[in-house]
Amino acid sequence: ETGVTQTPRHLVMGMTNKKSLKCEQHLGHNAMYWYKQSAKKPLELMFVYSLEERVENNSVPSRFSPECPNSSHLFLHLHTLQPEDSALYLCASSPRGGADGYTFGSGTRLTVV
Amino acid sequence: RKEVEQDPGPFNVPEGATVAFNCTYSNSASQSFFWYRQDCRKEPKLLMSVYSSGNEDGRFTAQLNRASQYISLLIRDSKLSDSATYLCVVTAPNNYQLIWGAGTKLIIKP
Predict the structure, then answer these.
(1) Which residue of A56, A93, B5, B12 shows the fewest CB atoms closer than 10 Å?
(2) In the predicted model, is pLDDT for residue B103 greater than 90?
(3) Angle at B94 between CA B89 and CA B99, to 5 degrees
(4) Are the beta carbons of B74 and B56 closer than 8 angstroms?
(5) Predicted confidence (pLDDT) per residue in A65-109, tens digit
(6) CA–CA separation, A108 vs B109, rounded Å?
(7) Which of A42, A90, A98 sits opposite B4 (nearest CB)?
(8) How far is B71 from chain A (nearest CA, A)?
(9) Torsion, CA A90, CA A93, CA A98, CA A101, rounded to 10
(10) To the nearest whole angstrom, how far is the Cα of B44 from the nearest Cα of chain A?
(11) Contacting residues for A20 by C-beta, under 8 A, at least 6 apart
């Protein structure tokens, strides 16, 4: 499979649950990103990993915890989320961590109940 | 002031018409500029980069005005399949991160 793959596509979780989002890229890219997209708002950058090191953490609450075990895989671990965390979570990758060549996954639509 | 501002629309346009939308950005140090397209409930996809001299890709023309800090997208002979949200994107001054507009929704009607 090519491109950026995200699972699951849809997730409904309670506020006390723990779940993880998974992202996998087969493009040989060195940088991976997590974005949050809420309705009628711009994409918000959450985390950036370049060569498996976290290089950016945009004041994201600790209930979101990223993990990048290798350059092809990225996880977002979720625990004790709030209803306002309901959104589309998008994973992206790029060749060198710059502006060019972004490829997005299809996203996980998360609903917190 | 928002870092990247776009008219949210929706722009309702008849098929075959020409439509244009603009975007303004706040940081004069931004170096790269893009238009992305996002279909309903799908991920964003790169439509085209925007160059200082202006560039064209088929029915799409992008322009950049650095002095006024705005970017435009023109779509000629619009198709039903052009219906989507168009996202204006600029790079942060470090040229590393992308700063996204909230998007302009376009609806092409038969």
Answers:
(1) B12
(2) yes
(3) 20
(4) no
(5) 999 999 899 999 999 999 999 999 999 999 877 777 789 999 999
(6) 30
(7) A42
(8) 17
(9) -100
(10) 7
(11) A75, A76, A77, A78
Contact B100 A56 (CB under 8 A): no
Residue of A40, A98, A104 lying closest to B8 (CB–CB): A40
* Mean pLDDT confidence for A28-50: 91
Q: Above 60 in pLDDT, residue B6?
A: yes
Q: Which residues of A touch B96 (CB under 8 A)?
A: 97-99
Residue B81 main-chain phi, psi, to 5 deg: -70, -10
Residues 14-73 of chain A whose Cβ lies under 8 A from any Cβ of chain B: 40-43, 45, 48, 56
Question: Among residues of chain B, what percentage have pLDDT more than 70?
Answer: 97
